[in-house]
Amino acid sequence: MTRPPAPEVSGGTGGGALRGTAARTAATAFAPLAWGTTYLVTTEFLPSGHPLFAGLLRALPAGLVALAISRTLPRGAWWGKAAALGVLNIGLLFPLLFIAAERLPGGVAGTLAAAQPLAVALLAAPVLHQRPSAWHLAWGVAGMAGVGLVVIGPEAALDPVGVVAGLGGAASMALGLTLTKRWGRPAGVGPTAFAGWQLTAGGLFLLPVTALAEGAPPSIGPSAALGYLWLGSAGGLIAYVLWFRGIGSLPVNSVAVLVLLSPLVAAGLGAAVLGQTLGPVQLLGFGLSLAAIGAGQLPPPTRSSRSASPPPSSAPSTPSTTSSPSSTSSTSSTKGTS
Q1: pLDDT tens by residue, 88-118
Q2: pTM here?
Q3: Domain residue spans in the chain?
């Protein structure tokens, strides 16, 4: 039996609800923040020429650890659902991202990956039966433009295969996200077990792909071991547990726009650690992307939220002791429809 998704909280009316939503959003944001360190870890710690092997070690060991902790396996139809989500969110996503990274400049690949919030906003209609929101579409475009300003340089070139792979990776993750939101989690299954199912399924999908594409694994030294450990723990197990928990408790568009944090973290680390320069255009892009992330956490403006309350009467109202039942009923009806 599938548990329906948790009610989406758009902000609440009390401080407690706002703090709860902010805490869940911050915890969910850890995932794209950790994913943003992947470029630095890969280039500075891992052996070159084995990106799929890095993806495999990021997924499969973390999934097996999660299964050992939770000691919960799928049942019934969830074997197929977990496999599909694992392939979309992890197994198919990693090879497509790596193909895009190899055939495109890093900035172009990062900008294509930033199209994911747009894809989620479009998929929400057929998958989640939600009306398309001009608010989320507009801020999705703004966020993608902001990431482009941050990471695309003048030497950027477009390779057709790389562009298709980059957009395919964004679409794969967007579909996985929306299906995760639609199916929810089975009753009694926590986010650790749920993440373990998908990491294991994605890792098993990557196992033959990696063997065919890259052959024997590389030798692993101490620095590479630390890099793989970081990717598998912070960027794998912890990140995906928090990510899937956030998908279940937050609006899907609010979660999707958090992905924009990944290229921003990558660019920030490049400037802080690798000495790369961020000029005024890049800083403008940072501001635009952060504005899109913040706006994505807000509910779309509606007519009801913009309409003002009826102004109070200029004369103080006094209870009437002679009002008839019909006038009282009419007044109540008027208030109920205002």
Answers
A1: 999 998 888 878 777 776 566 667 778 888 8
A2: 0.79
A3: 32-299
Tell me: the pLDDT tens digits for 227-283? Answer: 999 999 999 999 999 999 999 999 988 999 999 998 888 888 888 887 877 789 888
- Give the separation between CA 140 and CA 121, rounded to whole angstroms: 8
| E runs forming strands in 137-192 | 185-186
Give ∠ CA 18-289-175 in degrees, rounded to 5. 80
How many C-beta atoms lie closer than 10 Å to residue 333's C-beta?
10
Using N-to-C axis directions, what is the helix angle for 134-151 and 106-113, rounded to 10°?
Answer: 170
Q: Which residue(s) pair with 185 in the sheet?
A: 3
Structure tokens at 254: 């609010």
The CB-side HSE value for 162 (13 A sphere, CA atoms) comes to 18
Burial string for 177-210 (b: 16+ CB within 10 Å, else e) reads bbbbbbbbbbeebbbbbbbbbbbbbbbbbbeebb
Could you give phi then psi for residue 189, rounded to 5 degrees?
A: -105, 125
Residue among 114, 13, 125, 126 nearest 134 (CA)? 125
In 3D space, the residue among 166, 165, 196, 198 whose CA is nearest the CA of residue 179 turns out to be 198
- Residue 289 · residue 143 · CB < 8 Å: yes
Contacts of 131 (CB under 8 A, 6+ apart): 125
Token duo for residue 72: 């919960």
Give CA separation, 163 vs 45, 103, 221, 255, in Å: 27, 8, 34, 24
CA 323 to chain centre: 57
